[in-house]
């Protein structure tokens, strides 16, 4: 169950449903629970529960993104330049086109600061939806989706780091950089125990938290410092992915969803959201922008002979891939809370993300089902033609 491709998406879906039920059936307890402050004032670490989740626990999420990127770059589909070119260009198109569309629709309004919201693709939901709606999809399609989602999320990380930084504190930033340098030195002198790296990692997170750059970026940087070759015979990168992956999928991301997706969904709220420009900007950027960006970039790359599609991946699969890429969810919700301070605008944006995710899943299911039926029909016709040809030769 926990090892299946569906499991992380199901865990995220269950947590989201629980948050929505909690917020709509007992709004006071939901808001009171996540609004409860705790921590250490003297260290500047007194925050409410939602901020602890978003600033601390989500570091695990971004750490895993960094590990997955390094794995893809060294051992996965991004390790070979010709094979990597298509998903990388697709990811860039799938980030730039939605962000540009969102900006065009919100230019001159307060909503424009949320241009980073529709850039990323949620790996857990996307892979889960693909496994659910297209179980017979070629393996190359899943590899492309993972590569696109990983690169998209890294681009979103850069946007979070530089687009939503709050006045850099250079001393703290220097301390964070020094901590990363210490990690490299520890690697060079042969430190293989985990606890010293955990200690330095916490210190790097603390310094990053106070630097003005979002603290979760520390997770990505530390992940990229992970050695790709075995140390003392131990495959560190593989072991970390094996250990941190389940913690991220079944603890960090579901708790994030539980803390951030509890929105009131009464008729009046939904009616008001449907009249808000930011709702439509998010919806169209994730649905149309992602499809045009991803599928358009793939078509241009393959058509110009700069890259090629994996075996058995057809144009219909590419369209379905563009639809699935509209599942922004986790990072989209995360950026929403960084981009806006107005509670109503945050609410409308998150409802737009929900609506886009549902419609993207439906569109992907339809497109990939039609593609599968068409491919099976072609394969059946081909087999029948071959049988007739053999029979004709025998006669």
Kindly describe this structure.
By secondary structure, this protein is an all-alpha fold. It is globular and about 80 Å long. The mean pLDDT is 88. InterPro entries: Na/H_antiporter_dom_sf, NhaA. It catalyses: Na(+)(in) + 2 H(+)(out) = Na(+)(out) + 2 H(+)(in). Na(+)/H(+) antiporter that extrudes sodium in exchange for external protons. It holds the Pfam family Na_H_antiport_1.
Write the layout of secondary structure elements.
Elements lengths: L5 H20 L1 H9 L1 E4 L4 E4 H26 L6 H26 L16 H11 L5 H25 L6 H19 L5 H16 L7 H8 L11 H25 L6 H8 L2 H27 L11 H10 L4 H11 L3 H52 L1
Brief descriptors of the model:
15 helices, two-stranded antiparallel sheet, 395 residues, transport, single chain
């Amino acid at each position: 169950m926990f090892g299946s491709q569906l499991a992380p998406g199901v865990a995220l879906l269950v947590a989201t449903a629980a948050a929505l039920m909690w917020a709509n059936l007992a709004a006071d307890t939901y808001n009171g629970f996540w609004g409860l402050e705790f921590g250490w004032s003297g260290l500047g670490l007194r925050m409410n529960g939602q901020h602890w989740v978003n600033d601390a626990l989500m570091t695990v999420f971004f750490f895993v993104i960094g590990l997955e990127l390094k794995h893809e770059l060294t051992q996965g589909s991004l390790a070979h330049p010709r094979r990597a070119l298509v998903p990388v260009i697709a990811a860039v198109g799938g980030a730039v086109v939605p962000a540009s569309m969102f900006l065009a629709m919100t230019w001159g309004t307060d909503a424009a600061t949320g241009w980073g919201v529709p850039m990323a693709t949620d790996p857990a939901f996307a892979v889960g939806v693909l496994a659910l709606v297209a179980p017979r999809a070629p393996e190359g399609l899943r590899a492309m989706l993972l590569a696109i989602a990983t690169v998209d999320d890294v681009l979103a990380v850069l946007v979070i780091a530089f687009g939503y930084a709050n006045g850099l504190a250079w001393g703290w930033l220097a301390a964070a950089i020094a901590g990363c340098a210490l990690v490299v030195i520890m690697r060079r002198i042969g430190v293989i125990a985990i606890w010293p790296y955990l200690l330095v990692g916490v210190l790097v997170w603390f310094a990053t938290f106070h630097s003005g750059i979002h603290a979760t970026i520390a997770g990505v940087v530390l992940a990229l410092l992970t050695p790709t070759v075995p140390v003392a015979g131990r495959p560190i990168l593989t072991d970390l992915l094996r250990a941190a992956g389940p913690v991220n999928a079944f603890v960090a991301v579901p708790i994030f969803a539980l803390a951030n997706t509890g929105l009131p969904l009464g008729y009046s709220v939904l009616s008001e959201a449907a009249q808000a420009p930011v709702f439509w900007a998010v919806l169209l950027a994730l649905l149309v922008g992602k499809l045009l960006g991803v599928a358009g970039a793939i078509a241009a790359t393959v058509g110009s002979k700069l890259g090629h599609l994996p075996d058995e991946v057809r144009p219909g699969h590419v369209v379905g891939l563009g639809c699935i890429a509209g599942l922004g969810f986790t990072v989209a919700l995360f950026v929403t809370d960084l981009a806006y301070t107005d509670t109503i605008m945050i609410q409308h944006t998150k409802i737009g993300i929900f609506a886009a995710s549902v419609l993207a899943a439906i569109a992907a299911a339809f497109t990939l089902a039609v593609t599968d039926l068409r491919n099976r029909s072609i394969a059946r016709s081909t087999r029948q033609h071959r049988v007739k040809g053999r029979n004709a030769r025998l006669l």
